[in-house]
Structures are given as C-alpha cells and as structure tokens.
Amino acid sequence: MSPTLLNVGFDNAVAAERIIAIVSADPSPVKRLREAAIRHQKLVDATNGRRTRTVIITDSDHVVLSSLQPVTVAQRLAELRAA
C-alpha cells in the first residue's frame, strides 16, 4: 500500500498519514519548535525561498515548512482523507 501524499506547494509532498498538526508559523512557540528542529536535523524546508506561512508537524518529529496558508494545507488534507 503506497502512502497518500499531500502537496505542500512547489511540487513538494508530505505523507498525509504522518501529519499530526498544521499550524501558523507566526507564534513564538512555533518559532522555538522550528529552532529545535534545526538543532536536531529534523527540519524540512519546502518553501523554495518564499515566506514561511505554515509549519507541519509529523509523527516522526520532523517539522516541514510550507509557504501555503494553513487553511489551504488543512483543506487539501481534509479532501485527501474524505476521498
């Protein structure tokens, strides 16, 4: 069985089953989470140099950065899970 992939922008994808949370990148706790992911080499930057708007947290403690709005990513995930 192949994993269902969620498009997070710019032809980048994340395994939908592994996503725990989709959060806005602005709050301070999220910024600290991002710094911790860098220290532990668990950060995946999928922004292609654009402004980070969404932080996706996976069950493997990886943190994925996306330039899409959090609402857009959540809608795409809901559509995948409904199908």
Architecture blueprint of SSEs:
Blueprint: E1 5-9, E2 12-15, E3 19-24, H1 28-39, E4 43-45, E5 54-58, E6 63-66, H2 70-82
Parallel strand pairs: 4-6
Antiparallel strand pairs: 1-2, 3-5, 5-6
Describe the 3D structure:
- The chain is α+β, with helices and mostly antiparallel strands and 83 residues long.
- The mean pLDDT is 96.
- It is 30% helix and 33% strand.
- It is built from two helices and six strands; from the N terminus they run E-E-E-H-E-E-E-H.
- It has a four-stranded mixed β-sheet with strand order 3-5-6-4, with helices on both faces. Strands 1-2 form a two-stranded antiparallel sheet.
- It is globular and about 35 Å long.
- The longest helix has 13 residues, at 70-82.
- Strand 5 (54-58) and strand 6 form a beta hairpin.
